[in-house]
């Protein structure tokens, strides 16, 4: 038979339960605090959202380096009727050192766009309009490396006519551009794996079904088609193709790096 507890015993049990509850609650908050602090430390170290599995285009500008970046905008109209225009953003690097060479590398794409749109202006009819817009992202920056991309769209009479992603990687110690096709060792085996990763990350892209593995290898090893740049998650690899572009996130890019 169960005995009834005395008032003292009951009070002791209640106090004990309350004490244990408070200890558990305090332990829980300490654990949460440590977890959040750990995440913040990792985010400060690696940048971006470390919980993300795949990279999405955004800026990763850092303000604690020996150089900084600011964004400027280039706008100009061409043709007798001024019916051909450019509006494209780009970063400017500045700091105590001379970054003239670095900025020339970055702005090389601006010069190409200007020449291209100027040539289009001479081929347009009076009732036609061509707009070329571009956004630039600093995808990675540290003391040794700067990666940027231009995401560009051409519009003919307000309809999307073309789109590209142009990647620029710069060695910040030598202040020289890196040759993109020499960063990774890419062959048909890489392309087969790329196709599988692409479908997992981006879903089915119908047009890619018309490309063989050899075609993909050719585009991934062509300076004209290759898209490759560093991010806090690793490296983004892809290519421009007729009608668009595609990229895949490689956290394990290190095992594909060329041995120079």
Give an overview of the whole structure.
This protein has 260 residues and is α+β, with helices and mostly antiparallel strands. 33% of the residues lie in helices and 32% in strands. The chain contains four helices and nine strands. The strands form two sheets. The chain has a six-stranded mixed β-sheet, with helices on one face. Strands 7-8-9 form a three-stranded antiparallel β-sheet. Strand 2 (84-95), helix 2 and strand 3 form a beta-alpha-beta unit. The radius of gyration is 27 Å and the shape is globular.
Key structural traits:
260 residues; alpha+beta; six-stranded mixed β-sheet; three-stranded antiparallel β-sheet; 4 helices; 9 strands; 32% strand; globular; disordered N terminus
The number of helices is 4
**Largest sheet at a glance?**
6 strands, mixed
**Helix residue percentage:** 25-40%
Secondary-structure content class: alpha+beta
Low-confidence segments, given as residue ranges, are 1-50
- Whole-number radius of gyration? 27 Å
- Please give the order of strands in the largest beta sheet: 1-2-3-4-5-6
What's the total number of strands?
9
Alpha-carbon distance between the two ends? 83 Å
Mean pLDDT: 84
The topology string of helices and strands comes to: HEEHEEEEHHEEE
Tell me the fraction of residues in β-strands, as a range.
25-35%
